[in-house]
Amino acid sequence: MAAVQGGLADTNEEKDIKTEPSNDGFGNNNATDGRVLSTSPGSSASAGINKSAAGAPEDQQTLLAVLQFLRKNKLTESVEILRREAGLPEDSLELKGSDSSGAGSGGAAGSGDKEGGDASALLSRVTISSSAAAQAPTKAAGEDQPDVNVVLSAYNQQGDPPLYQVYYSGLKKFIESVLDCHRAELSQLFYPLFVHMYLELVYNNHESEAKAFFEKFSGDQECYYEDDLRILSSLSKREHMRGNETLMDFRTSKFVLRISRDSYQLLKRHLQERQNNQIWNIIQEHLYIDIFDGMPRSKGQIDAMSGSLAGEGKREANKAKVYYGLLKEPEIELPLDDEDEEAENEEGKPKKKKPKKDSMGSKSKKQDPNAPSQTRIPLPELKDSDKLDKIMYMKEATKRIRLGPDNLPSICFYSFLNAYQGLTAVDFTDDSSLIAGGFADSTVRVWSVTPKKLRKVKSAADLNLIDKESDDVLERIMDEKTASESKILYGHSGPVYGISFSPDRNYLLSSSEDGTVRLWSLQTFTCLVGYKGHNYPVWDTHFSPHGYYFISGGHDRVARLWATDHYQPLRMFSGHLADVTCTRFHPNSNYVATGSSDRTIRLWDVLNGNCVRIFTGHKGPIHALAFSPNGKFLASGATDGRVLLWDIGHGLMIGELKGHTDTIYSLRFSRDGEILASGSMDNTVRLWDALKAFDDLETDDFTAATGHVHLQDNSQELLLGTYMSKSTP
């Protein structure tokens, strides 16, 4: 109950704001648990609550305030029922007539209920303190949808509806009047406060006030919140709030703001002088203010990092150590120019070649200090064919030309003609010998890009007749009669949104709207396993660079890690507040990156399932991720048309490539990591000088403690080329 009374009287120390949500900032130790209280009005539970409510002195005051309010509105029956249920003496109202200090806040809470028919409903509305919100800690957002009533009931405690505009414009005036250095930081408050105040008005059935409030202030919000505001404007009645996912996330996760100590002190002083309880309560309850010491950040620095559904990542979230180095290459002796044998192997093993590795990695035999230990997670053993691939790869690496601004790669465009089935996903094998496409008509198609045709393995009966000892046994097991340039794989029952080849080119993964991920054999062109775990569409899937493991992410906001020989997922990564739209493995297979419609990117540790990085800065859903071959950097692309570059070790944004005018759907680094290619809905492919983008960084320049990053605006110097396609994205 302290919630209704407390307000600013108990001058809170800063630690209230920095602590985790368990304390709701009012020192509320209410014995009455929010969950019990959200029982439906009029149920027997309320009687028990009333008894306890009348116990504590401040509870009694609130009760009297409510009684007086009912009386003022001539609801005498309700007064009697309530008084009897709470066990107050008959003359208690007269006694306390003068002492109506609590009537202001207590009275307002009831004002939505003019008919006042059900007294216990009113009471339960008042007794639900803000502790209900604190009951649902941030983590709950992903795993399990919290009880809707509990979540929304946090909006019960409210001020006087017409005053909301006054409160908000008061704060706005104050923020616009402070020094420039603080203004940028404090302006971050506008959006979360606006949303919570609007929702509070809607929840308490003040439809017209909510509408006026929205119309007056929605124009002041940053342009990148437009989509959210559109959803918000459609919520004009309390009933609309149930079942709205965006809103539930906004409610259960605290909005994170990074503010310097000086700016925070200014704000706190202002709100305490003004006695502006309403705003202070919202800040205490729904925002997490990450206070840092040092210079306030500039508008540019804040804009670069803001835009996600739940504010920025906390600085703590990016402090964990990440082993971003590459695993040591296995020792393989390079045979001396044995060209004939080499050629035969190439014939004999049609489907094998190298897993993707960094060329630099294969040269250095030393263990990278930032690399995880070889045994940190169990990785599959190298087969002989993989070793042959590696040897091929090393030989090729010695002949390779360095790419760069003067040496651009040659480009080959493939067009899918007559793809009236609707092409929804594409993947290439690493040696560019096969292309696979996922289609909206639920089929998966595989093409051979080389003159070599695709063949199935012979039937079991025919295989018995083969001489197992012959040198070309691998060639003999293939059935020539089945040779064709493409194969169609049937099995999904919805559009295929994600597709990924295994590094050894024996398997293909596909994920679909039907909620399954399927593993196909590229020897028999049949489905080997259907992995069921997601309940909703699976937007993306990706094989680990070492094979065996793969990751999938979908509409249920959870990314799952699987092994090809397990039916159940090995890890579930939950924490995103909206769909997981793209997934990628780190080159050392120890980490997984996921991008989401909540406009954040998270990096997860495969070993323990922890989230070790949260990157915010995109202004729209993220659709493309790519790790640099050396494992140090991550590039991401989103509907805002920007490519952002991230330093994984420091957990910071280090660059922004501007140029695309529409959603970016694909990103890929060249083998040596010198060039980054991005493909977009604006029908262009652009090549960027990744080496220059990363080399221009002086690491000392990072004040990693505050996350102040000075992004250079040098996109034009980094852009190496733009290639238009035939008006197809």
From TrEMBL:
The keyword Nucleus appears for this protein: yes
Renumbered ranges of WD repeats: 416-457, 489-524, 531-572, 573-614, 615-648, 657-689
The keyword Secreted appears for this protein: no
Name of the protein described by the UniProt record: Transcription initiation factor TFIID subunit 5
GO cellular component: transcription factor TFIID complex
MF-aspect GO terms: RNA polymerase II general transcription initiation factor activity
Species whose genome carries this gene: Etheostoma spectabile
Start and end residues of each TFIID subunit TAF5 NTD2 domain: 159-287
